[in-house]
Structure formats: C-alpha cells, structure tokens
Amino acid sequence: xxxxxxxxxxxxxxxxxxxxxxxxxxxxxASTPPDPRTTPAACPAALAGCPTARTSxxxxxxxxxxxxxxxxxxxxxxxxxxxxxxxxxxHLAEEFAYEAAVLVNELVTNAVVHAGTTVDLLCRLECGGPxxxxxxxxxxxxxxxxxxxxxxxxxxxxxxxxxxxxxxLHVVAALADSWGITYRPGLKTVWARLRAxxxxxxxxxxxxxxxxPQRGPRAxxxxxxxxPRTPRGPGRDWVDRxxxxxxxxxxDLLAGQFDEDMIAALAGQLLVPRLADWCAIWLDEDxxxxxxxxxxxxxxxxxxxxxxxxxxAVEKEPxxxxxxxxxxxxxxxxxxxxxxxADGVALAYRLVAGGRDMGSLLxxxxxxxxxxxxxxxxxxxxxRRVALAIGAARQYTRQATISRILQRGLLPSxxxxxxxxxxxxxxxxxxxxxxxxxxxxxxxxAGGRWCFALGDVQGSGPEAAVITGLARPWLRLLAREGxxxxxxxxxxxxxxxxxxxxxxxxxxxxxxxTPPIEPTAPPDPLDGQQARFLSLLYGELVPDADGGxxxxxxxxxxxxxxxxxxxxxxxxxxxxxxxxxGVVEGARYESESLRLNPGDTLLCVTDGVTERRSGPRMFDxxxxxxTVLAGCTGLTASAVAAxxxxxxxxxxxTPPADDLALLVLRVG
Length: 668
Prior knowledge:
alpha+beta, 5-stranded antiparallel beta sheet, 26 strands, about 30% helix
C-alpha cells in the first residue's frame, strides 16, 4: 500500500513549528504538492518488484515491541542470498537495522498513543541501482484520521524539557531521508524513507569486525541531546536540570532492548559526545566461566576517523579493575593513539547488575581537566541502567533459547513421506519465546499403516510443553504396537488421567507435609489437572495396492473436526466430535473410516485456526473454514496450507493470539 503524499517532510529541510490544538497536540500541516524526489510512490524502484512485508498490530502498548521484532525479522529475511521478491537485495549494515527499529518504534508509538486504533505496518525495500542507493520505506497507518500527528517540538527553551514534547517526529526527521503524512477516508498514514548504506558484504567476524565505518543509531542523539560544553565539560545548569531527563530518556530507550550488543551500541551513543569524547565497552561472556575473556562489544568516538585508532589502542586487553571497584570510577592511563590527543582523563567502570559482573566500560575526555564529580555520579547512575538492561537481555535470551530447544524436541525432527500422499504442514507459535501446546506428527505404524496426529494441550507455556512431551512419544509407542485408532485414544486417555491423578496426589502430600515447607497457602491439587487435558485428531492411512485410493481411519477427541474436500468443491466433516482426552477415566472412543480417492484433500487444524477472533466473530463462524477450503479445489497440499494460513491472518487486524497448526493431506 503505497502512500499518496498529500504532505511530506524531509530531514534535509527545517520544518516550521506546528500550531497546537487544545490538547497540546500539533495540528496537521497544510497540504503541499508531491515532490517526485522524496515521494516513495513516485520512486521507480517501488514498481520494480522489490521485497515488501506487512503486518497489523493491536492499538496497545505491546505494538511498538512487536513492530521492532517484525522489522528486524523482515530485514534478516531480506538479507539472505539471492533474489527476494524479484530484486537483488543489497547487504545492509548491521547498524541500519538499529535505526530502522528505532524509526518504526517511534512511528508505531505515535499511532498507538494518538489514534488508539489498530496499526497497519508496511515495509518496502527500494533496491535502487548503481547510482541510486537502496532505501527502506516504512508506512504506519491508523484508522483515526481525525486525530493529528505528534509533530515537531515547540520553540526550544533553555533546558531539555523541549525535547520531551513531540520527540517522535524529531527522531523520524533526523533518521529519515524524507517523511510525510497521507490522509485518506478512514485512514491516516505516516511514512518515512530511510536510505540504506550498502556495504561490500557482512561485517567481518573476530577481533576486527567493527573496523568499517559505523553509522550507529543516530536516534540516541535525538533522545538524549548533548549538553552545552564548558572548559570543564558539561555545563552545571545541564547537570542540574538535564540529568534526570537524560536518565529518563536513557531508561526508556534501553528498557525495550533484548540484544546486549544493541544495548552496548546505544550506551556508547548516549555517552558520546554528551559526557565523554570516546568510550569502549567490554561484555563478559554469559556463563563463560571465570577464565573467559571479555569481548570488546563496541568502540565509539565523537570523530569517526578516530574510531579505528581507538579500537587498535584499547582492544589488546580490557581495563583491569580491582575487586573493590563495584561501579565506581577507576582512573586509567590515557591510550596513545592518533586522533585521541596527547593527554586526557580516562575512567573505567564495572557494569554490575544483581551482584554479577556484566562487563566494563572505559571512557575518556581530552584535556588535563578532571571530570567533575557531578558528571561521574551521573555516569554511574546511567551505567547501572545499562547493566540492568544487559542482565534482562541475557535472561530473555536464555529463556528464548531454552524454549526453542524444547520446542524442537517436542516436534518431529522429520516428517514421514507417505507414498501417494502430498502433505503440507504449518506451525506458527503465538510466542516464539515460549514453547507451545500444539503439536503434529506423521510416522509409519504397524502393518504397513501410516499414522498422523494433530494435538493441542489446554494451556500454554512450560505446563503445556510437559504434556506435549509425554503425549507424542506415548502416541507413537501405542501406534507401533498395532493398536487400532480407537484403542490408541482409549489408552492415551487413561495414561493422561493416571498422570494427572499422580500429580494431584503429590500436590496434596506436599500441602500436608510436616513440618510445612513454606508458611504460604498450599498448592491447589486441581492446578496440575487443568493443563493435562488434550484435544487430539489421530488417524491411520493405508494406501491401496494399486497405488490409487487410500483407506483412512480417524477419530477426533475434543478437536476441531477434519474437513474433506472433494474434487467437485464439496466439503464435509470427516469425523464426529468426542470428549477431550484426560477428562473422564475409562472413556471409550470410536473411529470412522472413509476412502480418499485421487484429488481428495483432508484438512486438519487446531483451534488456533477455527477460533481466530476479530471482535466478537470467530474465523469458523458460519462455516468460514469450509468456505475457504471449498475455494482450494485443484491446489497442491502446500498451496492449500498457504491459502488457509493467509485467510486466518487476514481475518483480523491483530496477530493471532493462539498457536496455529494445520496439516493438509492430498491424494494423487
């Protein structure tokens, strides 16, 4: 969706201040004619098939974080080798992703705060040519065009409070090559064009990986503006009036980051040139042991030409700090390197969070004058925030890594290929940092049978993952022992009931233990049972000897019913509903058999598909899933899966709130 720029701005031209309305928000700027040099829709690259990605976000405080993750993932996908979307994608510098994330964060925050509606986000990479650098176009649309956009700040004052007002478009104007606002009926779009400085290839690894010119996240300079300098450093008035603002802005910027290298980059940009002329940041390797060498994560200097000499001077070894230096400044020798000056003041700090060392920082300022105590105290406060942000990022990374490893263990390492059957899978967890409760499997059974399953554990997170880790191996074991479909469900149900009973008995025993373990309320014995209910669709396929039709036997236990699509476009359920597994002890299940002929398609989904919500409506209301499937006649299994997934995502403006899994089996 390309914008029609009724309005535009440019980082290269000063914008006149906007008048404010009664709520203190800037009124919209008068419309100006489109400028073909800065209009994304007028750029020839926009019509050349360059890669595009879009998503919809909820109008709540979680939207900016989701937007940052989306654009980082999109840029990572585009950075792959070869053509993407019909165009050759240039290599993008790592720092470009930082600036793109900050830019989209400000645009989405503006839309959420001032419109409060769902937000549509579109990213398009204009690949450019030999003389035209690549550029990223970001468009953020809301559905409340009557609400004005948070614009340029009011007239500057003597202190830093001017930067508190309307900072969103401060950052946009500083980062973007051009930006603008488009009004349409029921829609308002703020777009920005960020020029990408292509490089010859990825950043080199190893100790010299940052020797190329670094553009860095320039937004940090906007969010925490440089204080007025005096011969003794930052002015006393700035320390008195601007320190709290500086710390507040720094905390806000660092709190949303879950990448420790990004945090180190932002810390360097915030310190230089406000409080120092240069700095270098080392990070201790997480769980690397006491002998692990710290890693030089970032070097930053106010003068870009001095970065390489500074790195060469400090990368030999990190500063050696005494054990007593827990966050306070330690004087260090002045590095000898070209561009640093003959003399200056260098201080080293430990980065400590929760009693653990996160790394160290070395900063310096040219000249013999010592750094005032007020400034060193401000730096200590700032570095405490940096260390806490690094600790939180590491905790998040550990959790996400464990969840990914666990999720890989819960899903099959490979899916069996059934002779004569074209199969396709879609699995999309709602939160990639948490292992989900949905699972699928296709595997060979006993006696020439092929088994398939699609399950969903009630609940989510670690509790659901535990049941998933039990159910799938149990299912395979029972199937390979030769039990028919209905007996597999009978036995799996009893296993879940027995396991839940043992968990409840253990909880009661723990609650009545003498002496009590903790003077708190005893655990509820029913808590363990709620996550042990399992909905499951399980079936077996037996291909005919002639390789034509396939006999299918299946049963659904509390699961969305499978749908059978015939070549004539008719759709019908392929099983009858039955009770969840793990609810009733001794429950007996029944199976049904049908014959799948060439061209028949069997669709199996979890409730993340059928119960996808858009306001009060669900995706499967009025047989919505069957309607979409009826339009898939003649498509391959992969094409059917892709169409169903796209229909689910298009059903609502917000991302799916539940895990999404589907299995497509097509004969012939």
